[in-house]
Specification:
Number of strands: 5
Strand order of the largest sheet: 1-3-2-4-5
Radius of gyration: 13 Å
Order of helices and strands: EHEHEHEEH
Helix content: 25-40%
Number of domains: 1
CATH architecture: 3-Layer(aba) Sandwich
Length: about 120
């Protein structure tokens, strides 16, 4: 599912280049395969990602595979979402949100998304 249109798996190796130095804002989703709300949210974000192209990229961070990134963001519960713009966190929230709610929240930072 990741590395589809406008999504990618963030790792320690690519995080700085793909997230921190990104020319467009990046929505980082901290998730785990054993987390039911995470498994509900991930396909919602993947479905929203093509609409976000050019405005926001979507990065998935598996907290089990990349604990150092989760620790750096002080993730205490998942799913945890962080919107980074110019390398800075401009918004963050925890828990499942339906696609429309995520889109609305992102629009408050990047303007109208999609059609």
């Amino acid at each position: 599912m990741a590395d589809a249109i406008n999504t990618f798996n963030a790792t320690e190796q690519n995080f700085d280049k793909e997230v921190v130095q990104s020319s467009v804002p990046v929505l980082v989703d901290f998730w785990a395969s054993w987390c039911p709300p995470c498994r509900m949210l991930k396909p919602e974000l993947a479905a929203l990602a093509p609409e976000l192209e050019g405005k926001v990229r979507v990065a998935f961070v598996d907290v089990d595979a990349e604990p150092a990134i989760a620790e750096a963001f002080q993730v205490r519960g998942i799913p945890a979402l962080f919107l980074l713009k110019d390398g800075e966190v401009v918004d963050a929230w925890t828990g499942y949100s339906p696609r429309a709610a995520v889109k609305q929240r992102l629009e408050s930072h990047v303007g109208k998304i999609g059609g």
